[in-house]
Amino acid sequence: MDAGLGMTGSLVIAGLGPGDEGLVTPEVTLALAQATDVVGYIPYVARVAPRPGLTLHPSDNRVELDRARAALTMAAAGKRVVIVSSGDPGVFAMASAVFEALEGAPDWHGLDIRVLPGITAMLAAAARAGAPLGHDFCCINLSDNLKPWSVIAARLQAAAAADFAMAFYNPRSASRPQTFADTLDLLRKVCAPERLITFARAVSTAEERIVTVSLAEATPDMADMRTVVIVGNSATRRVGPWVYTPRRAV
After folding, report:
1. Which residues 6+ apart lie within 8 Å of 162 measured at CB?
2. Using a CB cutoff of 8 Å and minimum separation of 24, what contacts does 146-152 make?
3. Is 2.120.10.30 the CATH number for 122-244?
4. What predicted TM-score, i.e. pTM, was given to this entire model?
């Protein structure tokens, strides 16, 4: 029997963008308007307006697989489910968790599943700063919840040695204040002290704050969990109030 036979529900994995409702795509807005159930981390679900016929299912931050399985179960039962993430759901977010849950459940492989992209915090931050990601760049999650510091450090070392611009998610939390300090120490061993670093906090919200300093001036307390940190490459420079990375290799 076809695994999807009889399943009339659907699952949409949607990105809500960095915060400003004007940055939510029309495609995501339509999916939310058609949903019977919205699932996600508590502050992300709070961004979805309640309405008749819609059930909201907020949950804690570290239950991604449980959240994914619950959403898949509801979709298999005929619900129109939307899982929401901030930014883009495929960037350190729920899309991977859903497919991880799906991998071990062949009965759900026939479900109608779509991933709807969103504007990432990284790209919103880069746009506010100018164009610091204008040439080759990489994106690294500094959280050690799902990978050890040794893996993070190896990737930081390789990216810095290759002269990539870098964007860092989850740089510094109350439970691991040393991670970003160690990151800065590692960068200082490879990069020149004048390397530009942009700290973009709460981009597109009322609490937005954008600060660019040199590597020599950067301190760990400039970042928190609402901050995206963008490190330029060796050619990144200022032009007036803006920061940009030339498109040509140096």
Report:
1. none
2. 149/179, 149/182, 152/179, 152/183
3. no
4. 0.90
